[in-house]
Design a protein that fits this description.
The complex is a heterodimer of chains A (191) and B (504).
Chain A (H helix, E strand, L loop, with lengths): L27 H20 L15 H23 L8 H5 L2 H20 L1 H17 L3 H22 L11 H16 L1
Helix pairs in contact in A: 1-2, 4-5, 5-6
Chain B lengths: L1 H11 L1 H19 L5 H12 L4 H26 L8 H12 L3 H34 L4 H18 L4 H16 L1 E2 L6 E2 L13 H17 L19 H23 L5 H15 L13 H24 L5 H12 L6 H6 L1 H23 L2 H8 L3 H20 L2 H19 L5 H23 L4 H10 L1 H15 L3 H17 L1
Helix pairs in contact in B: 1-2, 1-15, 2-4, 2-15, 3-4, 3-9, 3-13, 3-17, 4-5, 4-6, 4-12, 4-13, 4-15, 5-6, 5-12, 6-10, 6-12, 6-15, 7-8, 7-19, 7-21, 8-19, 9-17, 9-18, 10-11, 10-12, 11-12, 13-19, 17-18, 20-21
The chains are: A mainly alpha (191), B mainly alpha (504).
């Protein structure tokens, strides 16, 4: 099959995975090497799986993990060798094309979100996240940022809390009481 | 007769009808908005609908799937940005048409062709699945094992990426699926003595991380890209146009069904192969391919929608997903206590006919939404990515948390999101990882069953493979995929086809 490469192909599809076929992207060697090391560690770990009920034969819980991790090591090694042979793409840099500051910043935001979710609760954490994220990305005025992020948060909360009945940590916001209050209002109005 | 009633379930219950409609509408937009993929949407949705009954949950997800596969074509045509992976080939000729001012025609043809393709796929599903599942009852454990391996390998070999990276990704997925206490012997596997890992890693967390967060992080590279406005006039294509392309659409639909039905490969690969096929068989296109040829639209669009029906065949009959989305659907069925595989068709045929009914309904909705609402559409698609990306991230977190009400799942999700981000950058396909996670259990169980029946003797195991025709075919398939990637294959191909090439 002839190679089809529309401009926007960036790894969003399995039919045309990202990466460059005949060049090595910055950091690709390191990634490949880490994969080899990690797989090797997993092989060692898989070897330590013991069958509590008998010998560690072909039907023991060890066999498939050992087989797959071995496949991982072999394929990772071959990928490493193939990658090392390719010329480095001189036009790309790690900071611009692979891991720009924005991406690192957002990864950090996400981790922070996870940390704050339990103590602070879903609504305050999400509001904080959306406001900061949208402000940073859109670079528009505060009024726009606040109204867009709070409106979309309200929409998400209504859909997921009411329609999908997903319970998120309420934290410092007395969510249940608020809903009960509105329920009371509605039923009061109806009767 | 009962089959007919089950098939009609969705048409008679307004609530289910509404959900399919809503799902399709949402799917068209999800597919169309670049940065939102169907796989992402379905993986996030599964975590929200798991407390629902199984019928409404499946109805919604099928709508999204069908609509999403089609919706990607819109932005491919209007903006040259494939909204979904399956629309990559559509952009090649769709955008040149739009540039000439024929965006309306392009969208109309795409919609009708997707509809035709969708129906062919569903038809094949309805006819073939009962037969396949009858046949599948005779499958031995080793056949399941081989099928699972074949599925994971196929993604790597049919796509344009490197097979090695695909193999690595698949093996990684199987290893991730093995984490936790082994269900048969209760032995700890890859738990590193953490109690946390004993229950295993939630596959939903892996899925949302890989398809949600990692994609959102990748989209951060394109925050500033602006949408381009297009004027659209006539949409509904003339009957003559449809008639003219009918033969080609039948061929490419068949390609779509087959590729979709192969375990592991879905609409995106089907569309590319159909495009390739159209290029070879169309003798005198009105315009060159890549310059706005109508055939270049018809082929991928029929193929990717017929692949939807195709993808359900192995999922419903064997419990082996046809592509990433059906892999997630299998997960959804598991969560709802169903067990996809040949027994599903016997124990709960209603489920099968219900799904077929939903697909038919979704296909009609797709045609309807496809030919209407263009104005609203252009407005929604212009939603800036600076708002969209944070929202996807937020939804991913909520989704990962919601399944088990566990913050640990959120961390797993984030970890796999960041890992998936690097995998995407360096050309590792993500589909095999998910397939691996979903199929890990099936592979492990069936391998152990197979080898126990052979009294742990590898020689006898291979003997049974060679003496059973089905196992032999599957085994040869696995071997063929490996050989096709080695220099030996290129050499052999050159020997066999070389003379023909010279003769031309």
């Amino acid at each position: 099959m002839e190679r089809i490469d529309p401009e926007h192909h960036d790894g969003t599809s399995d039919a045309t995975p990202g990466g460059e076929p005949d060049k090595r992207r910055p950091g690709e060697m390191v990634f490949a090497a880490v994969m080899v090391l990690a797989s090797a560690y997993l092989v060692w770990n898989a070897w330590g799986i013991e069958n509590p009920f008998g010998p560690n034969g072909l039907s023991s819980p060890r066999s498939i993990p050992l087989a797959t991790t071995s496949v991982m090591v072999i394929s990772a090694l071959l990928v490493l060798v193939n990658t090392a042979r390719l010329p480095l793409d001189q036009t790309e840099t790690i900071l611009r094309d692979i891991l720009p500051v924005t991406v690192m910043l957002f990864a950090a935001f996400l981790v922070l979100y996870g940390v704050l979710l339990k103590p602070l609760g879903f609504l305050p954490t999400s509001a904080l996240f959306l406001v900061i994220a949208i402000k940073l990305l859109a670079r528009r005025g505060w009024v726009w940022t606040l109204s867009v992020s709070l409106f979309s948060l309200l929409l998400i909360w209504l859909i997921f809390r009411i329609v999908f009945t997903v319970l998120m940590p309420s934290g410092i916001v007395p969510e249940a009481e608020v809903i009960q209050f509105f329920r009371g209002l509605m039923s009061g109005g109806a009767s | 007769m009962t089959a007919l009633m089950d098939f009609l379930t969705v048409f008679t219950q307004p609530q289910l009808l509404l959900l399919v409609g809503l799902g399709t509408l949402a799917g068209v937009y999800v597919g169309a908005i670049p940065g939102l993929s169907v796989t992402m949407a379905v993986s996030i949705l599964i975590s929200f609908t798991f407390s629902w009954d199984v019928y409404p949950a499946i109805a919604l997800m099928i709508g999204i799937y069908m609509g999403g596969v089609y919706g990607g074509s819109r932005t491919a045509i209007l903006l040259n940005i494939p909204g979904a992976p399956s629309a990559i080939a559509t952009a090649l000729d769709g955008y040149p048409m739009a540039k000439r001012g024929e965006a309306g025609t392009a969208i109309g043809v795409t919609t009708v062709m997707s509809f035709i393709g969708g129906f062919i796929g569903i038809g094949v599903l309805a006819l073939a699945a009962p037969l396949v599942s009858d046949f599948a009852l005779r499958f031995q454990p080793r056949d399941y094992m081989l099928l699972a391996i074949l599925g994971i390998l196929l993604v790597g070999s049919l796509s344009q990426g490197s097979l090695l990276k695909g193999i690595f990704a698949g093996a990684l997925g199987i290893a991730i699926g093995a984490v936790g206490r082994d269900p048969l012997t209760f032995a700890e596997r890859f738990t590193f003595d953490f109690q946390l890992l004993e229950g295993g890693i939630s596959f939903i967390a892996v899925m949302i991380g890989m398809f949600g967060v990692s994609e959102a992080l990748l989209q951060l590279h394109h925050v500033d890209k602006d949408a381009v406005r297009q004027k659209i006039k006539r949409i509904v294509p003339s009957l003559a146009t449809v008639k003219k392309h009918l033969p080609l659409s039948l061929q490419t639909s068949s390609i779509g069904v087959v590729i979709g039905a192969l375990p592991g490969t879905g609409g995106d690969i089907a569309a590319l192969m159909a495009y390739d096929h159209a290029k070879r068989v169309t003798k005198n296109p009105e315009r060159e391919f890549g310059d706005g040829a109508m055939e270049g639209l018809v082929a991928p669009e029929t193929a990717n929608n017929s692949a939807v029906g195709g993808a359900f065949i192995p999922m419903m009959t064997l419990g082996i997903p046809g592509d990433a989305v059906t892999a997630i659907m299998i997960g959804a069925l598991f969560i709802h206590g169903l067990n996809p595989g040949p027994m599903l068709m016997i124990d709960q045929p209603d489920m099968f006919w219900f799904i077929v009914g939903c697909l038919v309904m979704a296909n009609f909705f797709m045609l309807f939404f496809g030919l209407t609402g263009i104005r609203l559409f252009t407005k929604i698609v212009e939603m800036p990515r600076s708002v969209l990306i944070p929202l996807i991230m937020l939804l991913s977190i909520v989704g990962a948390y919601a399944v088990n009400n566990s913050i640990t799942d959120v961390y797993w999700m984030l970890g796999f999101g960041i890992f998936g981000y690097f995998m995407r950058h360096y050309g590792y396909p993500l589909g095999p990882v998910i397939l691996g996670v979903i199929l890990s259990r099936l592979l492990d169980d069936n391998w152990r069953r197979a080898i126990i029946t052979e009294r742990e003797d590898l020689g006898r195991f291979f003997e049974s493979i060679v003496t059973s025709p089905l196992s032999l075919i599957l085994f040869l398939g696995v071997i063929l995929i490996f050989v096709s990637q080695t220099p030996l294959w290129t050499w052999a191909k050159a020997r066999v086809f070389g003379r023909k090439e010279n003769a031309k």
